[in-house]
Amino acid sequence: MGISRTVIISCAGMGNRLGLGTTKALLEVEGEPLIIRHLKMLQDEQDIRIVVGYQAEKVIDVVRQYREDVLFVFNHQYRETGTGASVAAASKHANDYILSLDGDLLIHPEDMEKALACSHEFASGDIPGTDDPWLLQTYEEGGTEYVSGFSRTEGYYEWNGITQMESEKMLHGKGHVFQLIEPWLPVPFLKLRTREIDTVNDYERAVEWVRNGFS
């Protein structure tokens, strides 16, 4: 038996910096929308909640063609709020833990398995690879690496938006997801290979990554 977990995928944003006129969750990489790539790797998870806002009907339609039992949560203030507000809205009546993912991510399939196998809290990052990263500040203690803070200028890893926390800690917030977990730091660090898509450069790098077999 795995842990009691709710998976929340934030797909409400407009993706303005990308400039393609679509919510990033519906961006196709090698012919497959990002949100469907997520759902294929989450097929054994029972409680999946997708937060929608911009182009909500399109996201709902694409997801329902693939999986019927997903719960949709609306963030009607998606223009004024960040992913933290989306996660907080979807956290009500969740299971013991929340695994939070962004809809604009590609995650290495092996590393998604690693995240799903994790039974404790964590915040995740990877080697910096986007045009405008938030960085994780980490330290080691007793053979475990911990996240101690977030910074624009200092840190070896780039925050990739993936975290697993006790659900009661994620109920309130409006900014970024990392601002929800900041009061609870330090938490264990989990390195997950990802590609986040904020700009056209990010998108081109992500497509190349998949074409090269995630290497």
Describe the structure.
The protein is built from 6 helices and 13 strands. By secondary structure, it is of the alpha/beta class. It has a 5-stranded mixed barrel. Strands 2-3 form a two-stranded antiparallel ribbon. A two-stranded antiparallel sheet has the order 7-13. The mean pLDDT is 93.
Task: Kindly summarize this structure in a few lines.
This protein has 215 residues and is of the alpha/beta class. Helices cover 25% and strands 31% of the residues.
What percent of residues adopt helix (DSSP H or I)? 10-25%
Beta-strand content estimate: 25-35%
What is the mean pLDDT?
A: 93
Helix count from the secondary structure assignment: 6
Strand element count: 13
- Pattern of helices and strands: EEEHEHEHEEHEEEEHEEH
Write down the Rg: 16 Å
SSE class? alpha/beta
Coarse morphology = globular
Report how far apart the termini are: 32 Å
Q: List low-confidence stretches.
A: none
Major sheet strand order? 8-11-9-10-12
> Largest sheet at a glance?
5 strands, mixed, barrel
Task: List key phrases describing it.
single chain, 215 residues, alpha/beta, five-stranded mixed barrel, two-stranded antiparallel sheet, 6 helices, 25% helix, globular
Write the layout of secondary structure elements.
Elements: E1 5-11, E2 28-29, E3 32-33, H1 34-41, E4 48-52, H2 56-66, E5 71-74, H3 83-90, E6 97-102, E7 105-107, H4 109-117, E8 122-126, E9 135-141, E10 144-151, E11 157-166, H5 177-181, E12 187-191, E13 194-196, H6 200-211
Parallel strand pairs: 1-4, 1-6, 4-5, 8-12
Antiparallel strand pairs: 2-3, 6-11, 7-13, 8-11, 9-10, 9-11, 10-12
